[in-house]
Write a structure and sequence with these properties.
Length: 60
Amino acid sequence: MKIRRKVGEKGQIVIPEIVREYIGIKPGDEVVMEVRAKELVITSGVSPEEFVDNFCSVVE
């Protein structure tokens, strides 16, 4: 999925609701931004503890 967005005057971008829902980002969550060869990759900032808790709840 590719979505084009404009950068606001303060350097902000809006992550569309459909994307936030798909990757599970909620207001107040942290995200991780990684720059790779002139690309910006944004991923959900789930902590290792949250990942393990989520994984264990799925396995049970």
